[in-house]
Amino acid sequence: MFLLDGSTWKVNDPNSENAYKWIFDSFQPFIYKGVGMDMVRGREMGRSYREDYTAGFDMIGIIATMAQFAPKNYTSAIKSMLKYWITSNTQRNYLEYAVKAKGISVNTIFSVENIINDPNVAEYDELLLCKQYSAMDRSLKLGAGYGFGISMHSSRIANYEADIKNENKKGWHTADGMTYLYNADLNQYNNAFWPTVDNYRLPGTTVLQATPIANDKISDCNWVGGVSLQNKYGVTGMDYHAYGFNLRAKKSWFMFDNEIVSLGAGISGNDNKEVETIVENRKLNPSGNNRLTVNGKVIKPNLSSTAKSLNQVTWTHLSGNVACSDIGYYFPDKANLNSLRESRTANWNSINGNPAMSDTISYTNNFLTLWFDHGSNPISGTYSYALLPGMSVRQVKSYAKNPQVLVLRNDTAIQAVKETNLNIIGANFWTDTDQTVDIVSCNKKASAMIRITGKEMEQWRLVRQHCRLVRLFQIIRTQ
Fold first, then answer.
1. Within 13 A of 379's CA, how many CA atoms are on the CB side?
2. Angstrom distance (rounded) from CA 148 to CA 387
3. pLDDT tens figures, 243-259
4. Which residues on neighbouring strands pair with residue 373, listed in sequence order?
5. Around 83, how many Cα atoms within 13 Å sit in the side-chain half-sphere?
6. Strand ranges for 134-259 from DSSP E
């Protein structure tokens, strides 16, 4: 299409318009301020020369090339989107990268430079979106100042890609409900994040302690997915069974505006191993001294190999590596947590055994890990916590005193949360029996989200997991 544009052989097939729709439907949501999200990159995330910013920048170059021959009704939006990605990434310079990278043409570089310098190209507004990608077991929430992703697997989608030339050797839990939180710290998942992070303890996952899982395996569970409301809010669920083991859990995420609530129930297994749910595993600054505040008390930031116990925790706050990257955590049930602040050193060969990609340089990063310990062989274990992206210490403390989320149910039949400020109820129904929570009743396995404003109940959507049908109702309340 690029080569033939402007010639007598210009591609005029009406189906070519799909290529431009793909930009907005499939690529734009997964590029956060120029960074390409790892949760959709398979084994590539284990390559030293293909970290997330590299993937994002390469996609920027491709889309900038498409902008040169796109129809006029797409050109303005594409250029605005590109300008936003490039200018909002204050930690990496696209043009500096492009002139050194292989495979990026001079034509593309000039095209991007013109877009950046053109005053008639307005920057795209920050994309606010909540979307379920049912064909690949991914969920995405883009809120004000943050992006949140969930990576899962099911009876339809395998867990993680590996073993092709021995790549991605430690992707064990990257699709076991791993959660990604993107914010102003755009270096969080690069600068050797993957070889240095504890791959046994990835955020959002419920795992057997220090236990690898075989790759390219599908689950025996098909209840994985969710629903979005008004493309702004969402609820996602995962019926989890650790491949090759007996560990099982019902996991749910409720994505509102200022908070993401995570619930776990039915955490059971008899594998004679400790079971953990990982709340956080965040890369810290080079000194490792990011401030951690627990119930108002600042915890001394000592790097160590020994975990500490934090009891009766209502809220915590972690200072970010850059401005606007702080994270708050609220625990509705006063959690008992383990905390570990550690320095970790490794090379890329530890996660990628392809000789053609050998990288023996040692890299060191500091991490803070928070997790629930469910003990060995748990029976019906649970957890609950809410992420509060971008909140300051004062805001998190205030939120904990007057939380806007209410856990309605958290068991193996129903997991449900109400956001009281938005008046939204999200619920996952795990059984084909008559069930009711608050004002919602359902007799099938389903994911539901309801918002009531005044006398109107807006967009009640149900996803019936066994037949993957979507039902939409708009109901006007008369009383």
1. 0
2. 10
3. 999 999 999 999 999 99
4. 276
5. 19
6. 138-143, 146-151, 178-182, 206-208, 224-229, 233-241, 248-255
